[in-house]
Input
Amino acid sequence: NIKLISKIKRAVKRNKGFITFLFLMFFFRGAVADWYTIPSGSMQPTIEIGDRIIVDKTAYDLNFPFTDISLFRTNEPKRGEIIVFDSQAANIRLIKRVVGIPGDIISMKNEKLVINGKALKYSELTREYSNTALLLNEDLAGLEHLVKYDQTREPTLANFGEVTVPDDHYLVLGDNRRNSTDSRVYGFIPRKELIGKANTVALSFNYDNYYLPKENRFWIDLYDEIE
Output
C-alpha cells in the first residue's frame, strides 16, 4: 500500500500540468460554457440536425459547478433568444426560442403571434428552402429570424387564446412551427430549468454522409441579421 501511494504521488507530480488542465476543462464545461448536440429538426431553419451549439451557461445564472444551484442571477432571457433547458414536463433537454417573457400577454391565430395586443410582422421570403416548406421572416421585438412551415404537416397547433406569462416563466416555440413540441404542449418554462443561452453553431455533422462535417455550417452566429 505504501509503494502504491508513493507511485500515485509520483504520477500526480509528473502529470501535474495535465491534471490541472483537465480540472479547468471540466470546471469550464460545468459552470461557464458547454455544447449541445441537436437531435431533431424543431428549430429549423435556424438550427439544423447535427449542429453542435455553443451554450453560454453564465448568460442568466452563475451556478455552482456541475449543479443547477444558482449562486446569483446574471441576466434575464429576452424575446428572441434561444435557450437550452432541462424540461421537467417533457423529461428531456430542449432548445427553443423565447417568444414570451414574464407579464407578456400572448396569443396565436392561424400560426401568427400576437404579443401584448400587437400582431407580429411576417414577410415571405423569395428564396426557396424546399419544395414542401414555406419560410417566413418573423419580426420578434426587433429581432428578425426565420420560421418554417412544413406544408406536408397539418397545422394542429396553429391557434391558442390569450395567455399571460407568469413571473419567472417563459413561453417558448420552435422555429419549425409545425414540427415542434414546445410551450403549446408543455406550457410555460420555469426559470429554474434554464441551462443557458445558445449563441453559435460551432460545427455540424452530416448524419447521412458518414458524419462528415458540413462545409457551410461552421461558426455561425445564431443572431445574425437576415440579409
About this structure: The two ends are 67 Å apart (CA to CA). The mean pLDDT is 86. The first strand starts at residue 33 and ends at 37. The CA atoms of residues 1 and 7 lie 10 Å apart.
